[in-house]
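Revision sheet: structure tokens.
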Amino acid sequence: MAGSTGKLNIQKNVIFTSRCNIFFMKIAVKQSTIEEILRVNSKIPEFDKSETQSEFEERYKKKKHLLIIAYVNGKPAGYLIGYDNEQTPNGAKSQTFYCWMTGVIPKFRNRGVLKKMMDFQDKWAKNNNYRKIRIKTRNTRREMLLYLVKYGFLIINAESIDKVKENRILLEKEI
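Predicted:
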């Protein structure tokens, strides 16, 4: 079972075919540490590498949070960091979990890794009494935007930036 003290692990076996080759992929998703996540983050070309561990930790410090890594055949393939969206403007406890950062190493993309991490997050959030998942992406991250819409996220707001390609798009889904 999951909770702030328990760990939830999901493993999924996936078989892919590529032209005439068939290969077996085992995807496992596990709770992790920020140190391990930063090692995976360093292999994702789209992300800024200048943020320090303490800058990452500042985002979720003193909040209920989730740090996970997906492994493909035992090798780190992606990560996800999420945290409690805290209180609503009227002071009530939020029932929304915010997925702050998630990414997959390029060679593991389009193989179900992101889906497994998002499924893990949904189950964890549901087990911790959240009703919604919220995430923000950018115009430049087209693959992520398409994925989110495909898997039930709805656009709820957009934030304009001087460079239109950098506009932020806020999405949400009920779990």
